[in-house]
Amino acid sequence: MKVLLFSEGKSLFKKSGVGKALEHQMRALELAGVDYTLNPGDYYDIAHINTIGVLSEKILISSKKKGKKVIVHTHTTYEDFKNSFLLSNHLAPFIKRRLIRMYSKADMLISPSEYTKNVVLSYGINNEIKVVSNGVDTNKFNCDKNIKKLFRQTFNITKPLILSVGLPFERKGIIDFYNLAKRLPQYDFVWLGAKLNIIPKK
């Protein structure tokens, strides 16, 4: 068996949850001894699609025509797409129609959380949905005293630290995080997340 792992715009989403999910999927298949490809031009038995772009939908349709099973990962919902990238609120209604169309055609859906599963079900989609976390590599969370000291020096942290990690979207709570930091000067606040040109300046 060979699996096609497909994510549109890999370079754009490399630092996002979708990008990390792709890395984890590759690692999971390697650990399970299952062959995979990232190239839709290769032979494959199952397509696992992570994105909802135009090319993703074409691969979904062509895979179904060839009689191949298709899994679509529900990383994207209408609700989460809003208040994220530039123009996301204008595009959100079109995105919702696309994702409903794609999710409805899949043989199976994978949701990263129960919350996302329930959102997808609220669209009237009846496909089988499995919940599988995108996962976190806990080996990266170690208490190396030298790294801890360097981190605190780099960011001039002298007080107890409150830390958040994620792309700096309004919907992820960065504005609330900022307002909380102003109200609690007895703590240091650090938000770690890639700055992308497609994130609103606000």
User: How much helical structure, as a percent, in the residues?
Assistant: 40-55%
Q: What's the overall average pLDDT, rounded?
A: 86
Order of helices and strands: EHHEEHEHHEHEHEHE
Strand content: 15-25%
* Rg on CA atoms, Å: 19 Å
Provide the descriptors you would attach to this structure in a database record.
202 residues; single chain; two-stranded parallel sheet; alpha/beta; Rossmann fold; 2 domains; 6-stranded parallel sheet; globular; 8 helices
How would you characterize this protein structure?
This protein is of the alpha/beta class and 202 residues long. The chain has 2 domains: 2-131, Glycogen Phosphorylase B (Rossmann fold); 142-192, no CATH class. It contains 8 helices and 8 strands; from the N terminus they run E-H-H-E-E-H-E-H-H-E-H-E-H-E-H-E. The strands form 2 sheets. It has a 6-stranded parallel sheet with strand order 2-1-3-4-5-6, with helices on both faces. It is globular and about 60 Å long. The chain starts with a strand and ends in a 10-residue tail after the last strand.
